[in-house]
Amino acid sequence: MSIHVAITRRVRAGCEAEFQQALREFFSTSFAHSGVMGASLLVPPPGSDAREYGILRTFRNEEERDAFYDSPMFKTWDERARTMTEGEPVYRRLDGLEAWFRSPGPPPPRWKMALLTWLAVWPVSMIVSALLAPLFGQLVPKFIFAGVVAGGIVIVLTWAAMPLLVRIARPWLHGSRPQPDKPGDR
Fold it and tell me: Which residues form a coiled coil (predicted)?
């Protein structure tokens, strides 16, 4: 099961461009670590005075995550990043529905995540079932057909429906956001 981690760093005034370039270089290097499955950078909106940058990382599992953060490669990056940032980075592990709604700050309220997920699952389940019924409906037992439909739903939700809905609903999901949690899971 993959592990998602949201990291928030406050970049020193005047170091924003240098930090972004250094982080892009580190992203390229970090993919040499076998357990790193993804990384993204979230920047403040253009024209904003905010200096909070978000880094989203996905690891194959907890062991790979821990090995990455204990590696000399990460420790070298962390030392370099500290010259361009203020305070300690904040690490948050994202679990369950939070992984779809991952962001550097706190996740939206669970009821909003559940409602948006339901809004995606309902039509996707109807569409996937209708599309697959002519192909598999009469050829396989019902429980296998149900598994094929469930797999189709998961694929559509993961790579299409949820990323699109989360992007569209971001202002509603997050509203005015409180400050990120204190350092915890990494």
Answer: none
> Per the domain annotation, does 100 fall within a domain?
no
Tens digit of each residue's pLDDT (9 = 90 or more) over 42-89: 888 777 788 888 888 888 888 999 999 999 999 999 999 999 999 999
Segments forming the whole domain that contains residue 82: 3-94
Other Cβ atoms closer than 10 A to 94: 19
d(CA 45, CA 48): 5
Please report whether residue 60 resides in a domain. yes
| CATH number of the domain that residue 57 is part of | 3.30.70.100
Residue type, 94: L
Q: Is 54 helix (H, G, I), strand (E, B) or coil?
A: strand
Q: What is the rounded CA–CA span in Å between residue 55 and residue 40?
A: 6
pTM above 0.85, yes or no: no
